[in-house]
Design a protein that fits this description.
This protein is α+β, with helices and mostly antiparallel strands and 213 residues long. The protein is 14% helix and 32% strand. The protein is built from four helices and 16 strands.
Length: 213
Amino acid sequence: MLQETTTASFRTMFHPSGPEYSVVDNNNYSIVQIDTQTWMAENLNVGTRISGSSNQTNNSIIEKYCYDDLEANCNTYGGLYQWDEAMQYSATEGVKGICPTGWHLPTDAEWTTLADFLGGESIAGGKMKEAGIAHWLPPNTGATNSSGFTAIPGGASNYNGGFTNLANAADFWSSSQDDELNAWGRKIFYYFEDVSRDVYYKAWGFSTRCLKD
């Protein structure tokens, strides 16, 4: 049975063997084992912030958006990344991308494996959402965080340079593209307990979770 504690800098999930976390770019990330998968239990926050009005580019620098161009929002909710930036300009499913060594961007199938283990898309979102309304808008329907995934609603950056859905929705990329312009992702919303699967324009900036190899 998982036990949890909170520190000033990060949330650590304790497993029977003791605390586990990954250190990336001087940030500590709590991790959680859910069935056979090991996930980061926080949104990735790596790279250099650029304005939401600029496209992230293939320039050997990891670039991120912070909601409303405020670094404090990255500290709370993690960075927002366009699909190509998250993938580091690869189109290979399961690529490392901006994740640390030993981790990768989850494929569409791996997201489905998670949702299926948690009872299916119609209820898995509630088991993945951080409980309460510290970050989510009320009513935060069905939120129990019984999985320990701890999804928080970092919102998204849109392809026009604006930002939307902070406190409303958690949007995550998969590493599986649908076509040249679109890729598969997952959305968890404050008013529902499902986790929805859909195709999104790659120029959107979404949150990123990494999955252990």
